[in-house]
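Recap from last week: sequence in, structure out.
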Amino acid sequence: MTAQAQSVEVEAEHNSNSLIYKIAPWGTAVKSLYDAGAKVISSRDLADARIALGSQSSVSANGSYTKEGFIYVADQKPLVVAESPLLDVMLARGASDAHKAESEVFYDAKDVFAQLDEDANKAPQDRRVLRLKKDKSYSVPTNRFGEDELALFLFKDRATAYGTFLRSNDIKDMPVWVVDKSYIDKQGSPFVRQLWLHRLDVDNQSVVYGDNGDLDMSNRVRGVRPSVASEARVRSAESTGQVSENSELAYDPAQISEYQTILQEVRKGDRAASDLEQVLEFINGLPVKK
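Predicted structure tokens:
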């Protein structure tokens, strides 16, 4: 393991994964996470960890950059991408340098617009690119995460549960901050900003920062990698062709309770049958003994 890989910090264990982080400028942090065998965390996985580990946990008490990004184009509403171009190591380093020079990370967005067209008829949670409906900052009520396009795009199958979690912690709205339109229109080319998901905070309410221009500053970047126990199980399964009866399963009691509630409410007619897709996705992801 390299010195960079050793310099990351383990924050928590969740769903057979280790949540690790690096506090450093974006380019340095991304490289350190990759060297440690991790991927930059998604907003969905960060929300899921917050729900499972609670509002007093480190993952809730500290914000983080996530793998999503915002792309700004003159005379266009902001675009949100599921995989930021700045996840590339070279572009990540360039982003830190650009922000240090008080410049932007300019990007040819042709591929993004092509993906936007391809995703036009997909559900928000299945898209790779989402165009916001507004060109200025706004807020999403946390009790509407299950129907809001951005919440579904970011938090996917955990959107409703994350909204409920935020609301239970006195966060009634989630602000979404974007770059001012007049500034965007003055730029000569499309540019990228990395998404920052703020901590649970009744003042700033777990803001989705789409306007953060500080990738040169030392901030928290979280990553997800298989835990040691999980890696051992994978090696065992690969060598034997089966999953051990004593394997630690990749779910927790809170998840089971949630899916049981969905089944019960659908049976009573209090919930749409389409919500059974969440249960099916969960079941399909369970380990299978052969």
